[in-house]
Write a structure and sequence with these properties.
Blueprint (H helix, E strand, L loop, with lengths): L5 E4 L1 H5 L9 H14 L3 E6 L12 H7 L7 E5 L3 H10 L3 E7 L2 H8 L3 H18 L3 E6 L12 H14 L3 E6 L6 H11 L8 E5 L6 H10 L4 E4 L19 H10 L8 H15 L6 H8 L1
Parallel strand pairs: 1-2, 1-8, 2-3, 3-4, 4-5, 5-6, 6-7, 7-8
The structure holds 3-hydroxy-3-methylglutaryl-coenzyme A (HMG) and magnesium ion.
Magnesium ion binds next to loops.
Pfam family, one: HMGL-like
GO molecular function: hydroxymethylglutaryl-CoA lyase activity; metal ion binding
Pathway: Metabolic intermediate metabolism; (S)-3-hydroxy-3-methylglutaryl-CoA degradation; acetoacetate from (S)-3-hydroxy-3-methylglutaryl-CoA: step 1/1
Amino acid sequence: MSEAVRLVEVGARDGLQNEARTLAPSVRAELIGRLVEAGLRHIEAGAFVSPRWVPQMAGTDEVLARLPKRPDLTYSVLVPNERGMSAALAAGADEVAVFTAASETFNRRNINCSIAESLARFEPVLAQAREHGVPVRGYVSCVLGCPYDGAVPVAQVVRTASALARLGCHEISLGDTIGAGVPSAVKTLLAACVTDIPVQRLAVHFHDTRGMAVANCLTALEQGVRVFDSSVSGLGGCPYSPGATGNVASEELVYLFEGLGLDTGVDLDRLVAAGGFVDQHLGRVTQSRVARARRAD
Ligand code: HMG
Ligand code: MG
């Protein structure tokens, strides 16, 4: 068997949270079902956040209730606080993700508190998760730049990521929220992070605002990272990151990794079809060049 990489499909959360059109829970669940059919095994299904802040994620409990459950599938959800954690537990999420940022201004705009306050807020969330045996992922946003503060010191990223690891997050996803990074910056960042956190516990989460995301993923792969967040059809962005576009398209990563001889477990044609399904519901055109080429073949 060839060496494997793991894709964390975030389109149904990161993607849809930023679309002007809000999709009904039944449609979101159908999308996720199609992603499962395509072979994705780790899927972010939604977020238990304030529906006033992010209305697109309302009804995440209903999405989870409609999903096929299997021991080889992990459905993850974002939780900002204890209330979100309780909702995630009640809905039967397999994993939760807490999220903070390496930039103070972004964090305040995103979750209305400082970085230190967010970490304190996560402590009881992690305790609840431990009690119920639910693994917790940790996100750090703005690792390669902030839409408000500009450059973000690498040391600040390492400090924040390490704090999440110490709190008990099994995996830390490093988010280039505004897609500002280039490969040399990714290399510098990862070299600094691995001094404190084993590379096996790191994931990368690159938005493709400036077309650098595939190059940045390849650089992360070369640095030993094996977990990659991506969105079908390149859905995505962040409501608190003006101008940010979608995550790197899942289709691009499947094409890249399979081409490199790395097993993703994903059927590209089914993935492209799942992208077509959600694009039709949103009235958008795919941001995945691989999907466009595949349809033209
Ligand atoms: P707040 O206003 O400071 O807190 O918001 P609050 O406790 O005063 O609550 C405000 C309202 O939210 C209240 O309701 C609460 O009941 C309700 P209201 O009185 O307005 O009707 N509330 C909740 N409702 C549902 N679920 C909850 C919950 N908690 C409170 N868990 C809060 C603080 C964190 C709640 C708010 O700021 C929030 O929900 N923010 C969400 C931000 C978000 O989802 N951002 C997008 C995800 S992060 C991202 O995309 C980056 C990532 O992709 C990585 C990358 O790319 O960098 C992960
Ligand atoms: Mg994101």
